[in-house]
Amino acid sequence: MKNLKIKSARAALDLSQQELAEKVGVSRQTINAIEKGDYNPTINLCRAICKVLGKTLDELFWEE
Amino acid sequence: MSTSYLLGFGVGLALCLVVRIFFKKKLDMDSRCAQLDERQQMVNGKAYKAAWFTLTFTMLVYSIITSALEKVYVESMVGTFACIGISILVFAGYSIFNDSYYGINDRYKKYIRFFGFMGLMFAVSAVIQIARGHLFENGVIGDTGMFIVGAVIMLGVVIMTFIHNAMNKNAED
């Protein structure tokens, strides 16, 4: 399932996928895969993404 | 296979090992694994698995064919190298099309230059040997086959990279 929350949080900070990837320490393709729902990140990567985007785990990764 | 080729092969392998150890220990360069993120490491593992099964299958098929045929048209070293080459291409293809072959930074251009140069060198050497009529030696594809396999491997990686990049030109967002 696509993760549009990460995409919108990233867009709110005016970050490209490449920029977010560099800040988090992964490849751009990994961020792309997470946003498209093709890859489930580990908890450590989830936390790193939350830290960069200034959101909580629930706000970015919880599925209703 | 001629003694000179075997010697050259052995010396080349030994040199590669020495250079690799030197770069790793003395220059303290990170291993390739450290340059892969978690998703890429997972893809790398799957790629190795696919390559291993491919190598096992191709070697099995090659040994069955060579044992069944009265005359084998390929030297055993060339046939074995071809099986290894196919598994290398499977590994590279899986990794490239799942964006893990070139690491976190995806700096593929310097690798492409190297693979392209090596591939062309192998291809040119193969063409020269074929033009001199050295493809078949005593009715068997001999040392020239090694150049052909080497060229296919190197240029195969380059071609797969170009295809993948063309397919994903506008991948972001």
What distinguishing features does this structure have?
heterodimer; A: 64 residues; mainly alpha; 5 helices; globular; B: 173 residues; 2 domains; two-stranded antiparallel ribbon; 2% strand
Count of alpha/pi helices of chain B: 5
The ordered string of helix (H) and strand (E) elements of chain B is: HHHHEEH
Evaluate the radius of gyration of chain B.
Answer: 18 Å
The unreliable regions of chain A are none
How many domains of chain B? 2
Largest sheet of chain B: 2 strands, antiparallel
Helical element count of chain A? 5
Shape field of chain A: globular
Helix content of chain A: 55-70%
Distance between the termini of chain B: 53 Å
Which structural class should the secondary elements of chain B be placed in? mainly alpha
Beta-sheet strand percentage of chain A? under 5%
- The helicity of chain B comes to over 70%
Q: What would you report as the Rg of chain A, rounded to the nearest angstrom?
A: 10 Å
Main structural class of chain A: mainly alpha
Q: TL;DR?
A:
The complex is a heterodimer of chains A (64) and B (173). By secondary structure, chain A is mainly alpha-helical.
What can you tell me about this protein's structure?
The complex is a heterodimer of chains A (64) and B (173). By secondary structure, chain A is mainly alpha-helical. In chain A, helix 2 crosses helix 3. Chain A starts with a helix and ends with a helix. Helices cover 72% and strands 2% of the residues of chain B. Chain B folds into two domains: 30 residues; 136 residues, no CATH class. Classes of the chains: A mainly alpha (64), B mainly alpha (173). At the A-B interface, helix 3 of A face helix 2 of B.
Topology:
The complex is a heterodimer of chains A (64) and B (173).
Chain A: H1 4-12, H2 17-24, H3 28-36, H4 43-53, H5 57-61
Helix pairs in contact in A: 2-3
Chain B: H1 3-25, H2 38-68, H3 76-97, H4 108-131, E1 136-137, E2 140-141, H5 143-167
Helix pairs in contact in B: 2-3, 3-5, 4-5
